[in-house]
Amino acid sequence: MFKFITALLLVPSLLLASSILEAENATVSGGQVATNYAGYTGTGYVDFQNKSDDYVEWTYTTSSSVVADIDFRYALAYGDRPLEVSVNGVVVAPSLDFPNTGSWTKWVFTQKISVSLISGDNIIKIRTTSLNGGNVDYLRIEEMGSVVPAGVEFFNDTLRTWYVYSDSGNASLNFMNINSNKMSLGQNGTLRIEGTIKAEELFVTRDVWADYVFNKNYALQSLSDVDKYIKTHGHLPGIPSKDEISDLSVGSMQVKLLEKVEELTLHMIRLEKENIVLKNKLTSK
Ligand SMILES: [Ca+2]
Ligand SMILES: [Ca+2]
Q1: For the CA of 98, the nearest ligand
Q2: Which of 14, 18, 131, 266 makes a 20 to 30 Å CA pair with 47?
Q3: More confident of the two residues 192 and 2
Q4: 32: CA distance to ligand 2 center in Å?
Q5: In whole angstroms, what is the distance from residue 15 CA to residue 12 CA?
Q6: Which of 48-57, 62-71, 139-148, 241-250 is predicted with the least confidence, judged by mean pLDDT?
């Protein structure tokens, strides 16, 4: 059963931080630190040797959980030699593009990957899986914002935490499933709250509305049929009974209620017409 435990709290944004971690100072396996092509920073770069399982592994330490963009500075004269990228043992990009830069001395950045980093040490690793990779100069890490717990809930007996992700002064609410450590907006796009929702206005998107009642071909039940139905079933036709209704759909119930109001209006109009006929008959006598 869903339980919402604490209130949501907005937090102020944190400053951005950018770091460069040289590949030649990281843990290098299989690849070699080299200096023969100019344009690198630090004291060299890593030249991968083997098509699989060569890797460079950086350790990056943060004092709090953050969302960061990471990319890699590299040079590659020919082809496209993608590498696998993982963070804390989880593959975040199975095949990150390292398209050729046209020359071993032309150094550029890969595309950025947005990752979640934990408080403490983070292991960021690139690994060859099919081609031996370009020459990698360094890893760049840009902390884009804090990830701050804003509330927790129990859902299907699992503890999960709501986080506020704030960047450049823009705070937005995201959902982090602690088990998978992945962030998404809501759970399958659903906001669930056990309690009361207070709002100034509520919009429920509908693509069905009850205008069909006024269609010429609409099968309007006679009031005597409705009477029989109520006596047998104890509720209006087309409206769920107490036993049938558990979660009330606000949108579809609005349509059903309007349908009943429109049916009533049709009956009232008919009755008024009959009433006029009867009145006329009485006055003409
Ligand atoms: Ca190489
Ligand atoms: Ca370097």
Answers
A1: 1
A2: 18
A3: 192
A4: 12
A5: 10
A6: 139-148
Mean pLDDT of 27-52: 97
Q: Report how far ligand 1's centroid is from the alpha carbon of 51 (Å).
A: 9
Q: Per-residue pLDDT for 29 more than 80?
A: yes
261-265-266-272 Cα dihedral, nearest 10 degrees? 160
pTM above 0.90, yes or no: no
Give the pLDDT band (50/70/90) at residue 144: confident
- How far does the centroid of ligand 1 lie from the alpha carbon of residue 134, in Å? 6
Ligand 2 mean position, distance from CA 56 (Å): 12
Domains in the chain: ranges and CATH: 1-191 (2.60.120.260), 210-284 (no CATH)
Which ligand approaches the C-alpha of residue 77 most closely? 1
90 CA to centre of ligand 2 in angstroms: 25
C-alpha of residue 125 to centroid of ligand 1, in Å: 17
